[in-house]
Every structure is written in C-alpha cells, then in structure tokens.
Amino acid sequence: MLLRHTPKEISERKALTINPAKTCQPIGAMYAALGIHGCLPHSHGSQGCCAYHRSTLTRHYKEPISAATSSFTEGASVFGGQANLTQAFNNIFTVYNPEIVAVHTTCLSETIGDDLPQIRKKAITEGKIPEGKYVIGASTPSYVGSHVTGFSNMVKAMTELAEPTGKKNGKVNIIPGWVEPCDMEELKRLTKLMGVGTILFPDTSGVLNSPLTGEYKMFPAGGTTIAELKSTADSMGTLALGEWCSADAARQLDKQHKVPCKVLDMPFGLKATDRFIEALRTIAGVNVPEEIMTERGQLVDLISDMHQYFYHKKVALAGDPDQLIAMTEFLISIDMCPVHIVTGTPGKKFEKRIREITADMPFEVNVKAKGDFFLLHQWMKNEPVDLLISNTYGKYIARDEDVPLIRWGFPILDRQGHQYFPTVGYKGGLRLLEKILSAIMDRKDRDDPETKFELVL
Amino acid sequence: MGAAEKLVQWNPTDIKAELIKKYPPKVARKRAKQIMINEALENGTPEITANVRTIPGIITMRGCTYAGCKGVIMGPTRDIVNLVHGPIGCSFYAWLTRRNQTDAGPEGPAGENFMNYCFSTDMQDQDIIFGGEKKLEQAIQEAYDLFHPKSIAVFATCPVGLIGDDIHTISRQMKEKLGDCNVYAFSCEGYKGVSQSAGHHIANNQVFRHIVGENDEPVEGKYKINLLGEYNIGGDGFEIDRIFKKCGITNVSTFSGNSTYEQFATAHQADLNAVMCHRSINYVADMLETKFGIPWIKVNFIGAEATAKSLRKIAAYFEDQELIDTVEAVIAEEMPDVDAAATEILPRTGGKTAMMFVGGSRAHHYKELFDELGMKTISAGYEFGHRDDYEGRRVLPHIKVDADSRNIEEIVVEADETRFSPRKSEEELKALEEGGLKFKDYEGLAPDLEEGTLIIDDLNQYEAEKLVELMKPDIFCAGIKEKFSIQKLGVPMKQLHSYDSGGPYAGFKGAINFYKEIDRLVNSRVWSYMKAPWQENPQLSGTYVWE
Questions:
Q1: What is the pLDDT of residues A82-101, one digit of tens each?
Q2: What is the ipTM of this complex?
Q3: B378, B309 contact by CB (below 8 A)
Q4: Set of chain B residues whose Cβ sits within 8 Å of the Cβ of A45
Q5: CA proximity to A234, closest of A138, A326, A317, A166
Q6: What residues of A are in contact with residue B405 (Cβ under 8 Å)?
Q7: Distances (CA, A) of B216 to B112, B182, B213, B274, B288
Q8: What are φ and ψ of residue B402, in 5° steps?
Q9: Cα–Cα distance, B47 to A446 (Å, whole number)
Q10: Quick check: pTM over 0.95?
Q11: Are the beta carbons of B12 and B46 closer than 8 angstroms?
C-alpha cells in the first residue's frame, strides 16, 4: 500500500498538516499574471519559491513558464529586498523587455516587511521602470490563505490599471477565476455566441496552450492586454466567477470606479452555467441564441441517458472552493452523492455553502475547509465511495482504496488534455459527464465476473 | 536566425560575446566570468567563477537551500518523517516531485515508508507573529502519535529563521521526551547560500552529526561500501544495487536513494565510500574518512563503460582476486546486451550534438553516455556546482570563501576515540594510488571536455535560448523549467534531473534505456512538423485551376 500508515481511526490534529489539499499564495499570483499579455511575473523573495512555482506550473500546463525572482540572499533578508528588486527591474526591462511586470511577495519578503508600493515608487522616480512600461504588485504572504488567495490577490492587483475615460465601452468584464486556458477560451466563445462584448481577465488562453512552431516567444500572442485592463473601468459591469478566485477584484472595480458587479459560481455543470448565461442575458439585454439552447439541451439529454449509471453513486472530492461548490451542485443535479469534501483553502463560508447545497440530500456530508488528503482518505476508509475527483495527488488514495479517480483541478501532473478540453459551460458539462461515466464503467468492466460482462450497457 | 547561420563554425569567442551582448554592463561583466572557453593549460584548466550569487531579475534555473536539503538529500529517505516547518508551499512542492523511487517491501514494522506523505506545520500569520515553536512541538507529537517513526527530521523554511523559532532546541527536547525517536533539525532556510548547494552541505552536516555512527551492531558483508550521492531517481539506485549484489559487494548505505535511518546509522561500518554526485555529498565522504578512517573514491555509474570502470575501481581497492574475477565476469555478462543496443542505435545518433546544464555532477556523468552514443557535448555547465566540480579538487585551497559560503556551517570532525580505524595504511593507499586508483580526488568536468567547449555556470533562460539558436544542438538537457521553452525552438529536451518519466539510466540496463530514449528524442518525426506545407512556399503568384 502506498499510504500504508494512514489509520482508519480519525484523531484530531491541531498542528500537523498531512498531504495538503492546497499550496501557497505566490503560485496563484504567478498563474494569474501569466494571463496578462506581455507580462513577466516576478517573485519577490528567495529564488527557490520562483523555481518551485515555475516547475509546478510547467508540470501542469506543459508549457514554458517564465518568471523572474529577486534572488534574496541572507544579506537581503536582513537589510531588505529593495536593492534586489530595483536591480531586477533594470535587468528585466533590459533583457526581456516585457510590457508589464507583475510582482508578488513571498513569506520571506512579507516577514521582513518589504513595502512593495514604496519600492515601486522609488524605482519609478529613479527611472528603473522605462516610460510606457507597467509594474503592478500583490501582497501574497504564503502564511495566509492558499494558492487560490494568491490568484485572487493578483487579479485584484490588475484592477490598479483600470482607468476610466468617462465613456462607457459597452462591454462586460468577466473574471473567470483559476480555470484552464481552454476554459477561458470556452467562456469567450459563449459570450461571443451571446453577442456580448467582454473583457476577460486574466486570460491564459493563447499563453499557456501555445503552438509548437520552431519559434520560442517569451510573451505569446494571448493574454488580456493592458489597454483592455485599463478599459475595465468603463465596462457596464463585472461578472466574477467564483467567490474565492474572482470576487475581490470585481468588488474593487465597483468600489474604485463604480463598475457594478455580480458574483456567480464558476460555470461548471448545468445549473451554474444556466446562471451564467442568464446573468449575461439580463446584464447585456440580449436573447439567448439557438446554438446555446441546443448545447444546453444536449447536456440535459446526456444526463438523462447516463442517469441510470450515476444514481446514488458516492463521490469524494478534493480541490479548490469555487470548483468544489460548482462540482458538488453538478453531482447532486445528476443524482450522485458527494459524501466527503475537502479543500485546503480556509474559510468557514465554504463549509456553509456546501451544507446548503447538500441540505436536501439523504446523507450527511463530511466537509472541511482547511482539510487535507489525509483526512479525506480516512473518511473514505470509514465510508467508501464509488468515485474520487481530485488533482493528481488523489491517485495514491485511489490505488490503495481501489476507487476510480477523475483528475480535475490543480495540479494535474500525470495526464494531459486538461489544457485543451474545457469543463466549463454546457459543452464542458458533456466532457465531465463523459469522464465520470468512463471512470465508472471502466471499473465495472474490470470488476464484473465473466457472466456479467456485457457488450451492451 | 540570420546570425545563427553565420556562426555555423561556432567560434566560441563570438558565441560568448553574443550571449552577454544584451546585458547591462555590470551583469555582462559578472556573466563573462561564469562563461569559460575550455582550453588545456599546462597546469590544468582556465578558471571559472562558480557558486556565486544569482543576479536578481535574471531568470535562473536554480532553486534554494531548502530544495537542496529537504528536496535532494533528505527527500529520498523513506522511513524518516520529514516535517517541514513553515507555510504550506515548500512542503507541497517537494512532495514526490523528484521521482525518487522507493521499495519498502511488505507492510509491517520493517516496511516503513513515508515517501508518499507530505508533512507540514502549515504556518499561519499568527504563527509568524507570535512564533511557531509551540506549533512545531505539537506537530512533532502528532506525527509521533500517528506513525511512531524511529526518526523525525525538521526543516526550516524562510520565515522560520527570520522569526527566530529555535527548531534545534525543540527537536532536542522532543527527542528526550519521546525517548525512542531521534528528532533533529535542519536550518535550511531558502535565503541561505546562493543555490541548492548550501542545502546539501547543511543536510550532510546534520545527518553526520545526528545519525551516522548511531548503530554499532555489525553489518555482515565481505566487501562493504557506501554509495554516496545516488538518489534513486527513476530507479537508478535499484539498478546499481542489482549490479553490486551480482558482484558480491555489500552496499551498507546509499546516501540517500531508497535509504533508511538504519543505513545512515551503520554507514561508519563500510570499508569504502564510493562517491557518485561529488557536489552534493563530498562533505559526508570527507567526514567519514576523518572520523572513522574510511577512504573515498569518485565513481560514476552513468554510462556502461563508466559503470565497468567504477566496478573495477572498487574491486581494485579491496585487492581481492575473488572480487576482481567476479566483477570481470559480471561486466562480461552484462556488456553484450549493451553492445548490441549500441550497435543498433549508434548509426542514428553518431555525430549528433548535445548540451547539458544540470546539477553539480550530472552534466559530467551524462557526458559519458553521450560519448557512448557517439554524440559530442558542445556546451555544458552546472546549475549549482563549485569551482572544484569544474576544475577539479586541486583548486580547493584556492577557492575564495565569500560571505554567502561563510554563513554555511563547517563542522569540525575529529577521529573517533574508539571507532577510528584506517581501512588502509598510508603505504597501502600509496601503492594503490600508484596502481592508478585515486583517493579523495575528483578532476572535474573541464578536463573531460574538448578544447573550445563553452562551459557555462548557472546558465539562465535567456542564454539557453540564445545558445540553442546559435549552435542548434540535436538535444538539450536540463530540468523541467527549461523543457518547453527549448522544445518550442524545435529542439528536443531531456530532463536530467527527474528524467521526464524515464529511467533508470544508471548501470548497464540504464545505459540501454538511455540509448533508446535519446534515439527516440533526436530521431522523432515530430521535429519535422514545425512548418506547414504552405509555409514552405508562401507566395502564391496566381490561383490554380482544378484539374
């Protein structure tokens, strides 16, 4: 057994996290920053942070992840990292020439109290940031929140660039949250079909799914442009997808520039996608086109076709709050039973929301924010499930407990395709259903005795 | 690509100039000293600057001290609970990502295996403000209560050093309190040193101080060695152990692939230390010699020829005909398969070129395998090597100790009062040296590379891209961060830290695996698909009529 030391008996742990279902803020800030066109993320701290974040993002997206670091030494840790960051600006703009540098802090620079806005101001005064170039910054101490918080903080920092012209642009801002590049592309396809002009930010499509052509571009064609980010202040409103990932930025735009906002769940599954389309329809005052009606009908059709295989199957889930909320609702909508749910990201609201969604179910749901994979495994030992949905780390539990696993979320380190096949929207719903059915049926075909092994199912 | 065509003859001076042309003057001056054009001098090689600070803002390949300590050295120990004291990230990123393989055998007390677990105190802001000592103490207790491991290792991440949590005192107190669990700590904060290298040193010191020599129960075996600096990535250690077993050599302890606490604790009973990765583990080799009298030799099991040579060195050391004969028999038995693979593959790889920028020894080791494939190494360097890894240990007395290195503890080791026992007398060592066996010696990478080869320390992303554009190697080797920017250029990239999903590449079977892997990479059809057919003839002079 791979996790041979995990006991069934659950004992309370106050200080020890085992097999975390989260990681730290800066990696989320780095991913978000890659969704700005021409942006070089910069990690203000010791160089190991940057190396780890780049490695993890590379392993997940299978794409080059460029990011710079302040490369703190012991001296910088004692005297402050100002000199390192100013020097870094100079080198970055000379050697790589990005449009914008998005700086995030680390536990190191936060603990010593480096003041990012002040350092930036000084760098501007000293001419270290060339004319027409931009620097934004987010405070992302690793000892607060999780990678999701870091993503949210960097997206919020992007609103610093918003610059009202006094003239509305007729567009809707959409903040997609931490989803795959293909999910961002799919959201753009849906809004285009709806006939709604949008500014999607951040947007990693075209950045983290770039083609192989024999040329390497440190700054690929995709990403939200600075002009678009400026223009977010002139938009009709903002749709923030996900309370944890996206709401802070939307509220900031509302507060700063009176751009009204609506916070929705991430559009995974039928109902959340319905709410997303409905919101677009009402905000922009458009009709839902036939194509989208067809897509919705196809999803409903597949649910009805597959329902017999899903009914009352038990599922365990680990992942990030916004994704889990939408997925829990989706699973219930197809009459599956999500019984164990953990996220590593702290927040009482998460547990409350999950309890609301599962309130009518004929079972008690185990849910924990600030949970970990170790706890999830113990729950599964006590009440076995038919399916596990999590990132790649779930494969150790899946093998030990002999439960099928669907890889969904971040990071996925051992499979590919997640960058290219969206799971948002109605079409994404089809893909989720296909994955769930295949996982369950593959297992059935493996386990059935010869007499029960059937051609037609 | 215009410039590239002009440089087909690869004048190294021109390439060097091209690499540093775009830098601000200060950066260019510093990098110039870290880019060396190899030449054979009368008394060795030209001097390279290495193990110096990374330049802020320059996209480096390097990681941190924590990565070197927890990730590299202690990560592969399977029955020690490696508890990371800090915010969650550091522990998360080092969780199973280096592909160290482990075999703990069946379950039960002997089958302890914590490799698949990730332990962290997940420090929160209150812990940073009020101190994390209580939480660490509690976490150690909880880990002990849950798993009853024989040992718990505590690792400090950046903020721990800054807020002053005394991890060593807590570890000592918990060791006393728990009674049957050895608890010790590593002050391996990420900001120390200039790269992973400082972390290796810190790990070596603490393993030596707290574990090595703890168990005097005799280890059986006729030819007892330790294998130092082998991390069982992709199963390398398994293959080397297979060969040792066949030769009748007892591997008391591997530092640290698939290792156990007891292996470290009994390491002082070996009669020879065989050092693979010189950079990461030479400190332990030196300390074992000083304290217990065990000599060390440099070995390399990457490459079939290198493996044979290393086995012969070990046999020569023991001066025992039976071992010498067995080793020759094993080599004779293993080599036909290797030769067959090489004969088949060589026509497809011969004459091709490779670049390697990995680690602190790997770039050197893998050159052997590329030699066997008939491929020329046209540029190489280390991510965290020191001058001695390039120029050989003879430069050790001349290496300037800067402020960053001075901050890393040097522990003073003396001969053990009761257990120091020189395995060979001075005369015996001298006689063996005269016979060609070199003790406590490593000649470095440079003498093994052709004249005019560009040796580059701490290569960064910008230089890597330039180098590939200018010299167009057939394969480039580095780590995961570098993989896809190189491949976007249409050049295959092989990870030599974690081997992508491959391995083992050590030993005889590993050599065959590597031949096949490189054959696949350099001859893959995919690299011919970069341009669409219409891009070859983009100009349409008119419309064409269907026929």
A1: 999 999 999 999 999 999 99
A2: 0.97
A3: no
A4: 158, 190
A5: A166
A6: none
A7: 21, 16, 7, 21, 15
A8: -90, 180
A9: 62
A10: yes
A11: no
